[in-house]
Amino acid sequence: MNQQDVKKESDPHLVQEELSDQELVRLEKWKKLKEKGIDVFPHRAEQTHSVFEVVREFFSLSPEELEDKHYQVKVPGRIIAIRKMGRATFFHLADFRDRVQVYLREDLIGKENYELFDLFDIGDVIQVEGRLFRTRTGELTILAEKMTFLAKSFHPLPEKWHGLQDIELRYRRRYLDLIMNPESGETFRIRSEIIRKMRQYFDERGFIEVETPMMHVMPGGALARPFKTFHQALGINLYLRIAPELYLKRLVVGGMEKVYEINRSFRNEGVDSQHNPEFTMLEFYQAYIDYNQLMEMTEDLFLVLAKEIHGREELQYGDNVISFRKPWARLKFKEAILKYSGLASDRLDDEKEMIELAATLTTDKKPVTYAKSLDVIFDKLVKEKIIQPTFIINPPREISPLAKANRQNPAEADRFELMMAGMELANAFSELTDPFEQRQRFEEQAAMRNTGDEESHLVDLDYVEALEYGLPPTGGEGIGIDRLTMIFTNQKSIREVILFPLLKPR
Description:
The protein has about 500 residues and is α+β, with helices and mostly antiparallel strands. It contains 17 helices and 18 strands. A hairpin with a 2-residue loop joins strand 12 and strand 13 (about 320-325).
């Protein structure tokens, strides 16, 4: 740990204007380290293992096996606990997935290096080189022979059971959450695994992963309020995408019969335990199938994910056990309202009464049509009561402007929404392929938009023109990855599964 040339600098200034006693002490330790010629922020570290890899690879070995093989490791990590015992010190080194004990002895590393450890703090990032053994209590431990400084922490870490009870602090400073809470790291590891397994699932079935624009001249693909921006060079308004749907279907027109995109989408709407303004979806399209085959594919995908990530077909979510065993329930939209809302059939058929009821259930713009009123009633009175995976099929065609009409009842759509644990997890339909009907649907939506309904669709003539070249029968589906991760990690808030959720500035 030598550095010949230590640059002279003016007194450092941390971001905080007022420093605590601990922070002032840490600054002084940093200065002393520099005075000793130690590079506190080196360029790289030569490691053999991460903390997690040490625990995974050597945890099952006996004391005799460790002693016999004399395993040497170089492990970087963050100091998260220190226990000094005179001329010996125990401390724990951690990464975001695990932690390992380190044993430091003065007689092994020398008095000067042992005293140097007094300048180390909880929170500092270091590398330890040494031999693995087990203590008398059986704990896997690194007997330190050499230590290298990698980064100084100028702020004390929050107390495990006090500082991190502040939920907003965990979201605003996710790095502290990951340092202090290994379970948070596990949540985001599972999220990454879900995305990786999804890619594998569709790649193995001949799908092509694509990327479509995130800035749209015209928002489309869903009924939602968009974010609006302006492009200076072109002098045009642009919108952050609310869904990639219309671009993906253009690709199917072009002959790409199986496509998918894992996409970030943006909706200028409320924030709650199930909604964040930017979110992640899997959206996929396959030619020559309809929404019935999509239901079968969805059952299979979720079951595969549960087995491969958790090794079982059932997952605990809050007080409930969610079963992914096939087949899943299928329930028509109006039947679901009758079953869960408590409304009698004659009341549900009274359009005027349902419009009045829906107006009392929402603080947003009051619905003015029967179909939109039923949508509000389902959202407010029904959705949270559906726990096991259930396909809600055939909602009103009016609230499904991109879906084919049902052949038995043209007032309904060939569409399903997958409900699970009181949330919507997926939305899918047999895609509307008739360009003339699609244009008419867009114009009906535009008329509603002119009445003040900002979530209604605009008339996208460029997309209609693409349909005029011929979109084959196609099934398309979007799956919310954030909400799926909530279920796979037993989290009740979407903010727990998004690394940096949107928060109002302080």
